[in-house]
Amino acid sequence: MNRFKSICLIIILTTLFIGCKESYQSPFIGKKIHFDPQLKYISDSARIRDIPNRFMGGTYRFFTIHDAICPKCIYGKLNMVDRALYSGIHHMDKIEVVHVLNISRSDSIYFVNRMYEKVDVKGVLLWDRNFIFEETNELFTPNETERVLFVDPNNQVLQTGDPLMDRDAIDRYNAIIDTIRGL
Q1: Any domain includes 76
Q2: CA 116, CA 22: separation in Å to the nearest integer?
Q3: Structurally, how many domains does the chain consist of?
Q4: Organism's domain of life (predicted)?
Q5: Which of 23, 36, 40, 93 is the most buried (most CB within 10 A)?
Q6: The whole model's pTM is what?
Q7: How far apart are CA 145 and CA 173, in angstroms?
Q8: For residue 113, what are the contacts with CB-CB under 8 A and spacing of at least 6?
């Protein structure tokens, strides 16, 4: 009888775990992304500029959010996420990748002098000095996998998922992309 209870408990817990995993939907899906003028564009020469108007919409984009003040943050996260997106996503020639880098004022000189040279991405870089992007768009989350967002031309979030932490993220993104006409 004791063995029967154990087997039943395992079956129930497995069913609950699988059911919960498949039914989870990010609270960010459907949100519209806004740009605060305090966010800055980092040019190829590490010059800080105002955000170009093209960020206000018009194309499909991935937004990735990174705390970019340590080598591990650059090598192990920023550069790797960029590579994963460009190597795994269909039609990347028509989709833009924008990396939002959280870098405080006090760390800005260190980043420019020591960390910028370690950045090896194809995507565009935005400088966020005070977590403005996450605050403006209410994107704060303890869930690291939700710091990668796929948005439509109206800057509305279609899907979330960090391809380094969530092995199904690339498949979910491609499933959406394959249904989009004109890509």
Answers
A1: yes
A2: 39
A3: 1
A4: Bacteria
A5: 40
A6: 0.82
A7: 14
A8: none
Closest by CA to 35, choosing from 9, 12, 54, is: 54
Q: At which residue do the structure tokens 């499933």 appear? A: 175
Q: What is the CATH number of the domain that holds 50?
A: 3.40.30.10
Where b means 16+ CB within 10 Å and e means fewer, 60-89 reads bbbbbbbbbbeeebbeebbbbbbebbbeeb
Q: Is 107 helix (H, G, I), strand (E, B) or coil?
A: helix
Q: Which residue has the tokens 């980043």?
A: 111
Place of tokens 């087997």: 7
Q: Answer for the pair 69, 62: CB distance below 8 angstroms, yes or no.
A: no
Domain that holds residue 141: 26-177
Question: Torsion-angle region of residue 61: left (phi > 0), alpha (psi -120 to 50) or beta?
Answer: beta
Whether residue 36 contacts residue 127, with contact meaning beta carbons closer than 8 Å, is answered with: no
